[in-house]
């Protein structure tokens, strides 16, 4: 059998080699001939690899065994020199193999499943699949793709703890299916996919590497990735490395490098006379990193408007706008640092391929720069391009059958307009009111004081409610309302899942789609269960509250015995209990009741309809 | 002498801007008539006048305006253009000495009391019984529009003189607020203009306070909520003055330091444009944001005439699916028993199903 990819890897701490063949992954121990482990590609459900920044290179393969259980297999790549590369190849080949398998088995193409084609054919198919996948990754944020991307969903759940608890409550142990769950969260998936698709740009590697002191020994950890970055950013280091490493062990090279003056110089630090000298590395101090490094971004054509080269012979001072007055070369001490940082930043920018320019539109650049420089203020007002909204006269819709209007008409129907008007005209028609007497008019006199205090109470209560709310939102008072942490957690959980159920219930209920009737009945059951769960949480909250109160009371008594001082009442007060739970979940309960009520009404209608149909 | 000065110095400039209060009084005669048992109009008017005087007493630069939201129109009660004649007429009618020379009353108070009452009486005298027959609402939208226009004019005019055209509209020379004393019911007909007024007020940072004496309105609640005003539904309307003085007297600058007595629960539902019903679930035109309780006829928005694509809706909002499915299910059961029902079942289940 021809192998697609292979690498030396250890499994369960035993060395061996991992080989990917056409339709299975096999692992053979180092001293054995025949493979001791064979995972058919068809059973693989998931694949994970350690990121490039981690020194340890591992691949985790999830495969379903007979019986449906998923088992992870972890392979650690052991090759000293090329573990990362082998792993990458293996990963890609595996992904491709799984892809082709899925395509072949999923689609009704008999040629694929028959597939006696040689490895070459399958590998080309595989590479095609990879290309397709890469292309898809960049552009395809469509709903269907996102909702079927299991890997993406898993990683989103991993990233969002709250979502994952909701998921496990609503989907794993509830009535909502995974498809339903994700169908309402496409936006989250899309955001996550885009977030994952983003690549981190280059950064100043040398500045991020910091020595750590462990047991009086300065230690540094350096990942492959970091070394690669260093070589990329500082070709001088690569040159030094190439010149010396066969002679010098790699580890020693790096340890000397990080202590050397060369490192300090590249980083942009000031060199001190007390710095270590290094016979090998100091030789390179004089060479400029700059000259042999600038991989300039290729600029095909500089737009005329900003091409300074034409001005070259007219430029008297190249050092800036004004001539240097002191005429001394290194006046300011930190200029080298500034220069290094500047050149480093330039390099970093050069390393990134510009994403915002379209190479096809180079010709328009002159025009673009010119238009940028135009003084817009001098032009007249631009013509407004607005969409005209034709608003029709609203009144014609008002007159007919307005329910509110009817209600009001009924409210005032027993009043005769003439009487009403006369009454008011009489009140106002006389000479000006005497405010004092007018204030007491219509008052029985005795009850006025009581009513006054009642009005005051209403206002004060409103202010108190409001203050409570404001303090709560600014975090003065504890958010949980005195509930113990576990009870509060279950309250938030039941709230989240009930909302989930409600959302799917309404979606299904209002969809008018018959196929979802089964979903609706399931969701109605879940909603009923939610109510029971709320009740049980309230019960536990009460129990906890009793316990807490008993404990506090006991404490207070002991305190009293010990000190002889009567404890203040406040210390024995305990928050929480079922009252708080009910308060917190009252809107949820109302919502559930409303949903269930609507369902009952709809159900009743059906029954009625049936009866009439039957009768 | 050498002790450290530890007293706190407030370097922060205190907002000394005068404040403008625009009071909108719902003058629906029916509503006041029903209220006469608990809160007779004269008492309410006296309370309001005392409240206005209290507002003016805070600073000589404070201003007030009173707008009547009547059954078919909205108009200013104070300040008015025709006031001089009416007041002098009233004064002459009363037969006493010139009211403006009354030694026992601050002149500004007197002017406002007289003018508000006179123009209110005039408004009522001009109203005929015939006009009232089929006009039972209140022109709240018009009144809000007048109030906003007045506020804008006062603030902008003062601005323009001092700061020039460039800064006009950005810096306000007065803190304005609107207080609505509402006695009648819902405003569903005026949903659109009221909402527009609310958003204008929100933009101009003018709080709209609602003093709800009677009736139920959803939209005035939203008005106070979006403009960060105070909403108060009076439980004891006979003590209007107490409510006015305790809730509504602080101006916008003072409110920053106070906990407002706003009632917390706000009903955010909207009214549909087609039947003026308050809806839980509605359909919104994607062009002009009109709200409908069901997709409009022929999928053409009744407000802006836009042809809407409602194919994506499917059967959403139609008959709840549970009806049809249940039917089908039970029918299926029956089908197994007696096949004679099968035709009927398919016939009854088809109308509601979407074409897809």
TrEMBL record, chain A:
Disordered: annotated segments: 289-327
Record PROSITE patterns: BSD (PS50858)
Location of the protein in the cell: Nucleus
GO BP field: DNA-templated transcription; nucleotide-excision repair
CDD domains: PH_TFIIH (cd13229)
GO cellular component, one term: transcription factor TFIIH core complex
Keywords attached to this entry: Nucleus, Repeat, Transcription, Transcription regulation
Listed SMART domains: BSD (SM00751)
Span of domain BSD: 140-193, 214-265
Pfam families: BSD, PH_TFIIH
Keyword DNA repair: no
InterPro entries: BSD_dom, BSD_dom_sf, PH-like_dom_sf, Tfb1/GTF2H1, TFIIH_BTF_p62_N
Protein name in UniProt: BSD domain-containing protein
Family: Belongs to the TFB1 family.
Domain of life: Eukaryota
TrEMBL record, chain B:
Keyword Transport on entry: no
Spans through the membrane: none
Amino-acid biosynthesis among keywords: no
Domain of life: Eukaryota
GO molecular function, one term: zinc ion binding
Main location: nucleus
Composition-biased stretches (Polar residues): 336-356
Localization per Swiss-Prot or TrEMBL: Nucleus
Alphabetical UniProt keywords: DNA damage, DNA repair, Metal-binding, Nucleus, Transcription, Transcription regulation, Zinc, Zinc-finger
GO biological process: nucleotide-excision repair; regulation of DNA-templated transcription
InterPro entries xref list: TFIIH_Tfb4/GTF2H3 (IPR004600), vWFA_dom_sf (IPR036465)
Function: Component of the general transcription and DNA repair factor IIH (TFIIH) core complex, which is involved in general and transcription-coupled nucleotide excision repair (NER) of damaged DNA and, when complexed to TFIIK, in RNA transcription by RNA polymerase II. In NER, TFIIH acts by opening DNA around the lesion to allow the excision of the damaged oligonucleotide and its replacement by a new DNA fragment. In transcription, TFIIH has an essential role in transcription initiation.
Record family assignment: Belongs to the TFB4 family.
Assembly description: Component of the 7-subunit TFIIH core complex composed of XPB/SSL2, XPD/RAD3, SSL1, TFB1, TFB2, TFB4 and TFB5, which is active in NER. The core complex associates with the 3-subunit CTD-kinase module TFIIK composed of CCL1, KIN28 and TFB3 to form the 10-subunit holoenzyme (holo-TFIIH) active in transcription.
Listed name of the protein: General transcription and DNA repair factor IIH subunit TFB4
Source lineage: Eukaryota, Fungi, Dikarya, Ascomycota, Pezizomycotina
């Amino acid at each position: 059998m021809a192998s697609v990819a292979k690498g030396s890897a250890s499994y369960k701490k035993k060395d061996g080699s991992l080989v990917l063949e056409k339709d299975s992954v096999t692992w053979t121990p180092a001293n054995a001939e025949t493979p001791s482990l064979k995972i058919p590609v068809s059973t693989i459900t998931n694949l994970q690899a350690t990121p490039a920044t981690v020194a340890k290179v591992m691949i985790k393969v999830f495969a379903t065994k007979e019986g449906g259980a998923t088992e992870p297999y972890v392979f650690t790549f052991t090759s000293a020199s090329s573990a990362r590369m082998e792993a990458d190849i293996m990963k890609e080949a595996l992904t491709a193999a799984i892809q082709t398998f899925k395509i072949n088995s999923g689609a009704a193409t008999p040629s694929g499943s028959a597939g006696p084609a040689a490895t070459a054919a399958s590998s080309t198919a595989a590479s095609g699949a990879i290309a397709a996948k890469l292309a898809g990754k960049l552009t395809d944020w469509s709903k269907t793709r996102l909702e079927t991307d299991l890997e993406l969903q898993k990683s989103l759940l991993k990233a969002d703890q709250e979502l994952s608890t909701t998921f496990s409550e609503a989907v794993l142990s509830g009535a909502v299916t995974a498809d339903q769950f994700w169908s309402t969260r496409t936006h989250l998936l899309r955001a996550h996919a885009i977030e994952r698709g983003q690549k981190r740009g280059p950064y100043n590697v040398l500045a991020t590497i910091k020595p750590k002191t462990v047991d009086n020994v300065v230690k540094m950890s350096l990942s492959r990735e970091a070394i690669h970055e260093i070589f990329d950013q500082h070709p001088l280091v690569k040159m030094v490395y190439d010149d010396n490493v066969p002679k010098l062990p790699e580890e020693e090279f790096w340890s000397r490098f990080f202590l050397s003056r060369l490192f300090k110089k590249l980083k942009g630090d000031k060199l001190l006379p007390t710095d270590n000298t290094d016979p090998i590395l100091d030789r390179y101090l004089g060479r400029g990193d700059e000259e042999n490094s600038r991989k300039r971004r290729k600029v095909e054509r500089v737009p005329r408007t900003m091409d300074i080269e034409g001005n070259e012979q007219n430029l008297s001072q190249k050092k800036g706008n004004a001539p240097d007055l002191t005429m001394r070369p290194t006046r300011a001490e930190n200029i080298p640092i500034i220069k290094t940082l500047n050149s480093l930043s330039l390099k970093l920018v050069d390393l990134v391929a510009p994403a915002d320019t379209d190479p096809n539109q180079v010709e328009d650049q002159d025009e673009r720069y010119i238009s940028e420089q135009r003084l817009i203020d001098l032009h007249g007002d631009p013509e407004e391009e607005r969409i005209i909204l034709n608003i029709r006269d609203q009144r014609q819709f008002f007159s007919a059958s307005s329910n509110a209007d009817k209600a009001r008409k009924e409210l005032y129907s027993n009043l005769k307009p003439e009487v009403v008007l006369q009454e008011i005209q009489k009140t106002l028609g006389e000479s000006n009111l005497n405010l004092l007497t007018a204030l007491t008019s219509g008052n029985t006199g005795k009850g006025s004081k009581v009513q006054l205090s009642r009005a005051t109470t209403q206002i004060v209560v409103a202010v108190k409610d409001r203050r409570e709310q404001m303090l709560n939102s600014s975090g003065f008072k504890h958010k949980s309302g005195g509930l113990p942490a576990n009870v509060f957690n279950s309250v938030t959980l039941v709230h989240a899942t009930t909302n989930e159920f409600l959302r799917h219930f309404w979606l299904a209920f209002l969809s008018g789609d018959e196929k979802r009737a089964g979903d609706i009945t399931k969701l109605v059951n879940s909603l009923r269960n939610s109510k029971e769960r709320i009740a049980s949480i309230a019960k536990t909250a009460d129990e906890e509250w009793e316990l807490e109160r008993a404990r506090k009371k006991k404490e207070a008594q002991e305190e009293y015995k010990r000190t002889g001082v009567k404890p203040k009442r406040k210390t024995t007060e305990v928050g929480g209990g079922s009252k708080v739970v009910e308060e917190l979940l009252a809107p949820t309960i109302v919502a559930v009741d409303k949903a269930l009520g609507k369902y009952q009404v709809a159900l009743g209608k059906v029954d009625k309809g049936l009866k009439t149909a039957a009768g | 002498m050498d002790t450290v000065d530890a007293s706190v110095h407030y370097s922060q400039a205190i907002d000394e801007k005068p404040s403008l209060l625009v009071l909108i009084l719902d003058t629906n005669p029916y509503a006041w008539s029903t209220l006469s048992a608990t809160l007779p109009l004269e008492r309410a008017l006296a309370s309001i006048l005392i409240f206005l005087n209290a507002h003016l007493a805070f600073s000589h630069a404070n201003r007030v305006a009173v707008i009547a939201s009547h059954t078919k129109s909205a108009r200013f009660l104070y300040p008015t253009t025709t006031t001089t004649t009416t007041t002098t007429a009233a004064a002459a009618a009363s037969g006493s000495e010139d009211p403006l020379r009354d030694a026992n009353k601050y002149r500004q108070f007197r002017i406002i009391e007289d003018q508000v009452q006179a123009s209110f009486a005039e408004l009522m005298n001009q109203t005929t019984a015939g006009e009232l027959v089929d006009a039972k609402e209140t022109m709240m939208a018009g009144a809000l529009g007048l109030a906003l226009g007045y506020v804008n004019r006062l603030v902008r005019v003062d601005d323009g003189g001092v700061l020039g055209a460039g800064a006009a509209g950005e810096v306000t020379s007065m803190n304005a607020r609107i207080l609505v004393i509402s006695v009648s019911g819902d405003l569903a007909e005026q949903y659109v203009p009221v909402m527009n007024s609310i958003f204008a007020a929100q933009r101009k940072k003018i709080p709209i306070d609602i003093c709800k004496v009677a009736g139920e309105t959803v939209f005035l609640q939203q008005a106070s909520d979006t403009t960060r005003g105070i909403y108060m539904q009076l439980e004891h309307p006979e003590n209007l003055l107490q409510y006015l003085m305790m809730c509504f007297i602080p101006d916008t600058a003072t409110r920053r330091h106070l906990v407002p007595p706003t009632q917390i629960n706000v009903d955010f539902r909207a009214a549909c444009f087609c039947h003026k019903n308050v809806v839980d679930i509605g359909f919104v035109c994607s062009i002009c944001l009109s709200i409908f309780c069901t997709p409009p006829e022929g999928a053409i928005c009744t407000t802006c005439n836009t042809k809407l694509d409602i194919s994506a809706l499917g059967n959403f909002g139609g008959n709840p699916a549970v009806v049809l499915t249940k039917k089908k299910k039970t029918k299926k059961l029956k089908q197994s028993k007696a096949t004679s029902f099968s035709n009927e079942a398919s016939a009854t289940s088809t109308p509601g199903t979407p074409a897809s």
